[in-house]
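Help needed: design a sequence for this.
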């Protein structure tokens, strides 16, 4: 009897609730059936739709047309259910937040990709209509996964939902779990909806170590030891002191993006780097400020359509403004300012194929113009054009003006009689045919991505100041100053110095699913400049200030510099750069094979392969459920210098050259920007292996790789190995061991360039409740270096012979990392590190960026991430880094008889540094 009573009571409750109208889910017609006016029903409906959902029935009083009497009448008839957010756009924004944290999507490592992946998340594609390049452009989706899905769809077996996707034969769990976030199956979850993203970032961060040293390098006269030779005492003998870079100079980025459904896209971005004007800090002449503001801005408008009428499964893309173009393995075209070592093209080091909009911080190698892409399952074609003024390293006169060049290879000068060139010291005002000398093109050295953001006038003022320091005036007769071999700054950065008109195309055939053959080419025209790089024998007098270093640096690794591309040599004179390449790939079972071959036109013929500097890369990726294996071969000629290439390598171009190692000897320290901010791969030949294998739920071999390569510029052979083992006895607990070994010049241990590095890491991670995270990490490093006898053990009787032995350096690093999810909308992250390098450089993954640290110090940072509202996100981070710099000790050891000279050259105490940085990011999406 009691059970029957309870059942009847439950049925009555259900019937009672069912009879009530749910204000959070009722349709407008259902609301109109309540004892209220039609206008009141519409007010309730619009309040719920456009203001907020109701938390209780008393929220009705917030509607002006609902008075207390109406509320009393409605209370017995209505109910308010618990509201669960089901808006697809809002839910996907939350997915974006979580995925981007996992992606390490900072500008640089995955530079420019975060925006594209956000677009893919917000406007997903129909998995049954996607093309091969669409699949492989997604993070952690392999070519094997793509072929598995495409073959199923080709058989007419439509994928209906995520469970159906997981059951696709041949797809891995890893591929499925990443793909499902970017696709839909029948109707798009966000259809014909206008969406905006607004982002503002304010961040202060120090210069990287190499840039820091470059800006501190002092300009000093040759006879600085003489009593009468003095230099200013206001610390203005270096770029750092002249521009007072010690002041806090924030980077500010403002980004706006708009999307309407899956078809229309537009965006605008302004990036104001350190010490520069921008959206928030404009001053001076309004016209120049506007021009400066526009030069720092990027924008685009685009149209995409995957359902062209009459063309089955054909996609069209059209973009105006700034865009990215990426094809193959990045040998011919992948435009970015940033270099990333060991970029395999798999996992998160992906290349997003084809034409995509670009609001990244890439400036020097940005493409601005128009691009069209048309593709279907059988073929694809892209055409793109760009016109932009590029920053360049320019040959300059003593007054800072451009050195001009004619089409015959003469440097052109001017006097009261007109333009002339020198022929064995004789001024020639006309050519052999009697025509007057005409040199209207600038003589440039190369593209350059400058560290200092100042305009040309400001840079020229600084150069004139330094030229005066380099050439002091003797105070009395009889005193003579002997100048340097290059007594003034002859190479300097110039903004917008080179007008580049670029066009390119990519054609691709897809004969069967998973197999593709492509052709890519671009031509860059320079109608106002000649690129002139001296050959190996003439290079040092152009780059080195003091002839004293000519002999010492003659054997330094300089072939990478002398083999840079020139539009004018003794053999030819032209006004363009052209790169041609072929790429292809196929999938055989569980293995995907792909590769690319590229040639830079120098003195060969375009239609003939093998007669010009070339680069090629071939890789194979095998994938199974718990195992993957990558094999990669590459060979890049020393003369293959393509600024739009961004391929796999261990080191960037100009590593170990005078541009990195001998900044003190350069005629202008800022020439080192060619290396400090380079984006190209070094000329290498090698083979690379990578794998990951999960034995069971307890043991996993993490990402492990072995790279054996030869540096083609000097034949140095090196090896790098890294492996890690994770033991997870419980889901909440993981212990990880990692070992890394690198040997430079492993083929000749008697050579001076030998070095051996070992790194041992142990980490314990615990995953707490509410997805909290705690990690303890310890790292121990050793570096075995060769003897530097010319510095440490001069060949004189009585010296300590032990100084000639190899040097062993050791270093320690300890870190604590913590993540605490306070609630669903608020997260706290932090870390504390302490290290003692003893001359070894340590590194640290910090939040979403990598940090290279000094010789000894401590660092702590804390970051707070908050979802302020449904559409607004905030991230604020503060970091303190206190460390010791080894540079002061090196300078003192180089000149032990005059330790005070080092202080005069640096002008500030560089032993201890304390840096406080802050990063604030606000994102508003609606």
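Sure. Designed sequence:
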């Amino acid at each position: 009897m009691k059970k029957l009573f309870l059942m009847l009571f439950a049925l009555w409750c259900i019937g009672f609730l069912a009879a009530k109208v749910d204000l959070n889910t009722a349709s407008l017609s259902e609301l109109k059936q309540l004892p209220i006016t039609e206008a009141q029903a519409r007010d309730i409906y619009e309040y719920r739709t456009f203001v907020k959902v109701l938390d209780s029935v008393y929220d009705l009083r917030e509607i002006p047309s609902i008075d207390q009497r109406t509320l009393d009448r409605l209370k017995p008839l209505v109910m308010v259910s618990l509201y669960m957010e089901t808006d697809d756009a809002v839910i996907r924004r939350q997915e974006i937040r979580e995925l981007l944290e996992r992606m390490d999507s900072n500008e640089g490592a995955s530079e420019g990709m975060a925006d594209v992946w956000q677009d893919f998340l917000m406007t997903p594609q129909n998995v049954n209509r996607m093309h091969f390049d669409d699949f492989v452009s997604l993070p952690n989706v392999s070519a094997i996964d793509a072929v598995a899905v495409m073959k199923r769809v080709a058989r007419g077996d439509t994928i209906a939902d995520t469970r159906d996707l997981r059951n696709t034969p041949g797809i891995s769990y890893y591929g499925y779990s990443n793909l499902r976030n970017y696709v839909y199956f029948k109707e798009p979850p966000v259809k014909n909806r206008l969406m905006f993203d607004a982002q503002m970032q304010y961040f202060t961060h120090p210069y990287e170590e190499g840039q820091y040293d470059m800006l501190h390098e002092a300009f000093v006269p040759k006879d600085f030891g003489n009593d009468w030779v003095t230099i200013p005492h206001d610390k203005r003998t270096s770029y750092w002191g002249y521009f007072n870079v010690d002041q806090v100079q924030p980077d500010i980025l403002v980004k706006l993006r708009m999307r309407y459904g899956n078809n229309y896209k537009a965006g605008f971005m302004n990036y104001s780097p350190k010490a520069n004007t921008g959206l928030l800090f404009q001053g001076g002449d309004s016209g120049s400020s506007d021009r400066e503001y526009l030069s720092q801005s990027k924008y685009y408008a685009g149209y995409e359509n995957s359902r062209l009428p009459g063309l089955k499964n054909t996609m069209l893309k059209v973009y105006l403004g700034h865009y990215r173009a990426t094809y193959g393995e990045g040998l011919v075209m992948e435009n970015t300012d940033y270099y990333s070592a060991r970029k395999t093209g798999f996992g998160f080091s992906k290349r997003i194929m084809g034409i995509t909009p670009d609001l990244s911080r890439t400036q020097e190698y940005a493409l601005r113009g128009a691009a069209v892409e048309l593709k279907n399952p059988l073929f694809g074609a892209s055409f793109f054009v760009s016109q932009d003024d590029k920053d360049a390293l320019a040959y300059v006169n003593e007054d800072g003006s451009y050195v001009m060049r004619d089409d015959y290879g003469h440097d052109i000068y001017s006097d009261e009689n007109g333009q002339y060139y020198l022929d064995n010291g004789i001024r020639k005002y006309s050519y052999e045919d009697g025509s007057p000398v005409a040199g209207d093109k600038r003589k440039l050295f190369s593209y350059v991505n400058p560290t200092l953001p100042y305009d040309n006038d400001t840079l020229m003022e600084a150069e004139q100041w330094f030229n005066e320091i380099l050439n002091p005036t003797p105070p009395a007769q009889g005193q003579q100053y002997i100048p340097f071999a290059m007594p003034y700054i002859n190479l300097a950065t110039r903004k917008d110095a080179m007008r580049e008109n670029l066009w390119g195309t990519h054609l691709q055939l897809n004969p069967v699913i998973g197999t593709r053959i492509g052709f890519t080419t671009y031509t860059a025209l320079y109608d106002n400049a000649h690129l002139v790089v001296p050959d190996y024998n003439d290079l040092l007098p152009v780059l080195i200030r003091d002839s004293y270093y000519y002999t010492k640096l003659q054997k330094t690794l300089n072939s990478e510099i002398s083999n840079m591309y020139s539009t004018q040599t003794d053999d030819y004179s032209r006004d363009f750069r052209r790169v041609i390449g072929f790429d292809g790939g196929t999938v055989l079972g569980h293995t995907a094979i792909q590769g690319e071959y590229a040639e830079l036109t120098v003195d060969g013929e375009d239609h003939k392969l093998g007669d010009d500097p070339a680069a090629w890369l071939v890789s194979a990726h095998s994938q199974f459920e718990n195992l993957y294996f990558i094999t990669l071969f590459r060979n890049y000629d020393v003369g293959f210098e393509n600024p739009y290439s961004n391929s796999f390598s261990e080191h960037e171009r100009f590593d170990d050259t005078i541009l990195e190692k001998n900044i003190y000897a350069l005629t202008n320290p800022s020439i080192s920007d060619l290396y400090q901010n380079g984006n190209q791969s070094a000329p290498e030949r090698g083979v690379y292996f990578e794998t990951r294998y999960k034995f069971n739920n307890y043991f996993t071999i993490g990402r492990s790789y072995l790279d054996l390569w030869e540096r083609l510029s000097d034949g140095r052979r090196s090896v790098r190995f890294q492996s890690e083992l994770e033991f997870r006895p419980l889901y909440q607990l993981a212990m990880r061991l990692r070992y890394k070994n690198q040997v430079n010049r492993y083929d000749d241990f008697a050579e001076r360039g030998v070095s051996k590095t070992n790194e041992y890491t142990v980490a314990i991670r615990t995953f707490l409740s509410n997805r909290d995270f705690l990690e303890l990490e310890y790292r121990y490093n050793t570096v075995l270096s060769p003897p530097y006898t010319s510095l440490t053990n001069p060949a004189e009787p009585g010296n300590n012979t032990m100084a000639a032995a190899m040097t062993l350096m050791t270093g320690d690093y300890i870190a604590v990392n913590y993540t605490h999810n306070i609630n669903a909308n608020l997260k706290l992250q932090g870390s504390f590190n302490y290290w003692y390098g003893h001359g070894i450089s340590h590194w640290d993954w910090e939040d979403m960026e990598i940090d290279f640290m000094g010789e000894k110090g401590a660092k702590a940072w804390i970051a707070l991430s908050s979802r302020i509202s449904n559409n607004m996100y905030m991230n604020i981070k503060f970091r303190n880094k206190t460390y010791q710099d080894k540079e002061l000790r090196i300078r003192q050891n180089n000149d032990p008889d005059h330790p005070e000279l080092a202080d005069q050259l640096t002008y500030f105490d560089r032993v201890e540094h304390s840096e406080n940085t802050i990063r604030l990011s606000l994102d508003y999406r609606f």
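Residues 2-19 form the longest helix (18 residues).
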